[in-house]
Write the structure tokens for this entry.
Amino acid sequence: MSDKKKLSFWEKFATKELSRVTAVQSGNELFLLSEAELKALLKIRKSTYWKVGLSGILGVALLYGPYHIFGASLFPETQVWIPIYKEYIPLEIGFLIYSLVLVLVEIWFLTYTNIKAVVKIAHACGHPNPNDPNFDNNINALIAVGLEKKQNELESIGINPYEGLNPWGVLVFQFVLRLKAAATGFLFKLLIKKALGRFALRAVIDFAGMPVYAFWNIWGARKIMNEARIRVMAPPLIKRCAELLYEEQKDNQEFKKFLYDTLQLISESKRSFHYNHFLLSVTVLEKFGIEIKEEPPYNEGFLEEISLLSAETRRGVQQLFIFGIMIDGGLSRREKKAIRYLIDKKLLQYSEADIVKWSKDYFDGRGIEAFFKA
């Protein structure tokens, strides 16, 4: 019996589309975006925004249009017995089924559009390269972006971004992340009702949701396209970083000893699983010939130990740390706070402004040559 995971319809579709590589790039060409590539990416972005934005507007129109035009003649109420309350309540069962069908259709369309956007971005930048040893991993990473799937490969190499948080901390952290979208939608409806007053027609309230759905569709597509872009440009930069680190630290046993701790520190500063960090960790560990473990020992006091390390090791640790927090395409407030803390402790020789600039240069496709030379 084969152990190979069975792919879903969308995974098969995305794999087929991404594997149709007509032209590949390598080295600097991949993480330095030309004017032609920037124009192509902008065109893809605009086209995708129009598609997903209109789908949000049409979804609301198709949902509430028939409902308010035909009313009970199309969606009659049915009295449904609820044992808990021991009484009947009126439900528009037909409307609920119709709503579900529309939601499924919109999800299908958005998934298709997002996958096509990821594929176009990858191919516009000459990625993925079939000759890359990590070709399959890169394909899977892009599929995960298009399908908005979380990737937890970091766990397979013993790195946990939630290390140090108790179980309740992890639960609260994840809950807050998921609450943002729902809370925003609720507040918008509340504001609309408040602005229009209690005499406003229900139809007006319902159709007022058009820009909300369009906005969230565009926001989701933007997030996916940004993520696809940074995953396309990361592999060659990661390879180069690993090579430069190896050249400087290959004979430094102290650096090798604390390499896993440094990678764990990067992960903790993010509090999230990210494919680029997984690829960085695997690449660096393999480059230094360090055995990959599923449960390496966790050094809780590593942050305090950095100041006691040799100057050579501290330089390697800070280079890897800064590169690691930049490689996901942006710096969160948590990461900026960590940077300021390390600067105050005199554990970083770089300024916060420089790090922010390097991160932006990476996302904009200008490369981070200044960081490698710092």
In short: The first strand starts at residue 78 and ends at 82.
